[in-house]
Amino acid sequence: MARWEGPLKKIDDYRWEIPQSYKSGMRVPGLIYADEKMLESIREEQAPEQVANVAFLPGIVGYSLAMPDIHWGYGFPIGGVAATRIEDGVVSPGGVGYDINCGVRLLRTNLREQGVKAKIGSLLSELFVNVPSGVGSKGKIRVSTRELDKILSHGARWAVEQGFGTRQDLEVTEEGGCLKGADPDKVSIKAKERGLPQSGTLGSGNHFLEVQVVEEIYELAIARVMGIEEVGQVLLLIHTGSRGLGHQVCDDYVRMLREAVRKYDINLPDRELACAPVKSSEGQDYLAAMACAANYAWANRQCITHWARECFVRVFGKSLSQIGLEMIYDVAHNIAKMETYEVNGKKLNLCVHRKGATRAFPIAHPDIPSRYGKIGQPVLIPGDMGRCSYVAVGTERAMKESFGSVCHGAGRVKSRSAAKRSLRDEDVARELASRGIQVRAASKGGLAEEASEAYKDVTEVVEVCHKAGLCRKVVKATPIGVIKG
Amino acid sequence: MKRFDIIDHTADIGMIAYGRELKEAFANAAYAMFTLIADLEGVKEVACRQIEVQARDQESLLVSWLNELLYLFDVEETIFCRFEITQLDENNLKAKGWGEKLDRARHSLKAGVKAATYHMLKIEKDNGYKIWVIFDA
């Protein structure tokens, strides 16, 4: 792939602008958060061109943004954020992605590294059996079509009503685990057919369950509010999304909105940016279906949480209250949300597309749980399985310039096929084991594709966001046990 | 004749499928996609299924064809290992797919793909046909 040679104007050490004049049709400039070193690898592919392309979307305000974990996606770059006016702007399924409400959920425990490492093999085996994973994995829940509609309408709330988890879990889930405006009638039969058997499954690709150990605490007072007290404490991280149901919703609506692009005569540089006015019937239908898929994903993570708790109880022979496993937070990183921001001194109602970007609301924001009112919303940033993950909190600066958004992970540097050519599953597993990380993988080639070599170093990504002021680092955790889908 | 090449795309995965005729290229595209889902060597041709897809234009038809097969894999758990396109025009496709129901004890699954996208999609006629597709993986 050709190197991107377009203009990047330095604003400061962590901000680079693609001028609006770069391409005729751009309605706003582009802005990439990165340091000078990262910029080199970002230029190696066409992701910056995608940042410029997103700036074509009618109604886009501020900047077409990209976080430091930016990489080349389809239509939108991964790590992209775009806010469009609800009044006269568009919504684009490509700005959300195929895995609607792919997201992460973090739980804390009272357990410590030593005790868990001693039993990590049996813990992983138990998790591997009880949380269905892998390509086309089928869930343990058998729901009727009517019941599925309830999942689509109520999300994680449905799961809690069924006994999977507690009300406290919902309090610390973005949107309470239930995005408003969901209408199951806007989800195709096909999407529902795919959703029926896959409820409560991890899936494959980069989805995982990770048993982690707190390695470093940067802000102890903030960490304590989240229930993280000391280095060596064990955490559990869950990363999954809306499975085949979400993929089908995206596919259905990309096709439908390609028609809308003709109907509303929208000028786009890439077909995958297909969109419709937010207020049009097509736009509203997509948002209603997207909310259903988002809710399905939250129910999914909620069910998995419940089974993971059962596994911990069985393996450690303690009660759940002794073990802890309380939720810290659950955030979506592929979603479109209706939010209000001040842009150039004016309050605007916006549709914020986060495609591989995490919401990062600051202290005292009305949409974050009261328990985090004084620290800001926890932001969960997973790295690859051989490195580490971060917990951060949102800032006022993110509200002012990135529509309350920050990075979502490490970002790939090596394609899946290139990783598989140069690495073998067995070698990856052995290398990880030698560093105290046990892995179980459901898919052949899954470990090679997800090896550290295939990713940017998440530490560098988080460092840029921290220094740019979009979030504040709180905790760093490293994996000791990984289940790869 | 080479049936397909898997191509690198940082976040995802792509392919170029070849065919003397467009029908053959569509069939090879589907075959290439299933090589990303499972090891096809152990998959037997015990079931045959009719598949029909309609779309507004040829490119949509290609994406719909591939995504229809992903839907069938999710819902019916069929791993397809051979395809024959029986009818193909600008808006309609009829095909037969051979394969068998997924047997986790016997079949070796890979990381799979989530969906075929329109990103960089291209159907080119040049001494036969060439098809480019990028998947969300």
Protein described:
The complex is a heterodimer of chains A (485) and B (137). The model of chain A has no long low-confidence stretch (mean pLDDT 96). Chain A has one domain (9-484): tRNA-splicing ligase RtcB (Alpha-Beta Complex), CATH 3.90.1860.10. Chain A has helices spanning 36-43, 47-54, 113-117, 120-130, 145-154, 156-161, 167-171, 189-198, 220-225, 243-263, 281-316, 320-323, 396-401, 416-422, 425-434, 446-449, 458-468, and strands at 9-12, 15-18, 30-33, 64-71, 78-85, 90-91, 103-112, 208-217, 233-240, 276-277, 324-332, 334-343, 346-355, 358-359, 378-381, 389-394, 405-406, 438-441, 471-484. Chain A has 17 helices and 19 strands. In chain A, α4 packs across α11 (281-316) and α5 (145-154) crosses α11. Chain B has a single domain, classed as Archease domain (Archease, Possible Chaperone, Chain: A, domain 1, 3-Layer(bab) Sandwich), CATH 3.55.10.10. Helices cover 26% and strands 40% of the residues of chain B. Chain B contains 2 helices and 8 strands, in the order ββαβαβββββ. Chain B has helices at 22-37, 58-76; strands at residues 4-8, 13-19, 47-54, 78-88, 92-101, 115-116, 122-125, 129-136. In chain B, a hairpin with a 3-residue loop joins β4 and β5. Chain B is globular. In chain B, 48% of the residues are buried. Chain A binds chain B through residues 45, 71-75, 78, 97-99, 134-136, 190, 193-194, 197-198, 204-205, 244, 247-248, 250-251, 254-255, 258-259, 270-272, 274, 412-418, 442-446, 449, and chain B through 6-13, 37-39, 55-56, 59-60, 63-64, 67, 70-71, 73-75, 77, 102, 108-112, 114-115, 117-121, 134, 136-137.
Ordered list of secondary-structure elements with their pairings:
The complex is a heterodimer of chains A (485) and B (137).
Chain A: E1 9-12, E2 15-18, E3 30-33, H1 36-43, H2 47-54, E4 64-71, E5 78-85, E6 90-91, E7 103-112, H3 113-117, H4 120-130, H5 145-154, H6 156-161, H7 167-171, H8 189-198, E8 208-217, H9 220-225, E9 233-240, H10 243-263, E10 276-277, H11 281-316, H12 320-323, E11 324-332, E12 334-343, E13 346-355, E14 358-359, E15 378-381, E16 389-394, H13 396-401, E17 405-406, H14 416-422, H15 425-434, E18 438-441, H16 446-449, H17 458-468, E19 471-484
Parallel strand pairs in A: 3-4, 18-19
Antiparallel strand pairs in A: 1-2, 2-3, 4-5, 5-13, 6-10, 7-9, 7-11, 8-9, 8-19, 12-13, 14-17, 15-16, 16-19
Helix pairs in contact in A: 4-11, 5-11, 8-10, 10-11
Chain B: E1 4-8, E2 13-19, H1 22-37, E3 47-54, H2 58-76, E4 78-88, E5 92-101, E6 115-116, E7 122-125, E8 129-136
Antiparallel strand pairs in B: 1-2, 2-8, 3-5, 4-5, 6-8, 7-8
Helix pairs in contact in B: 1-2
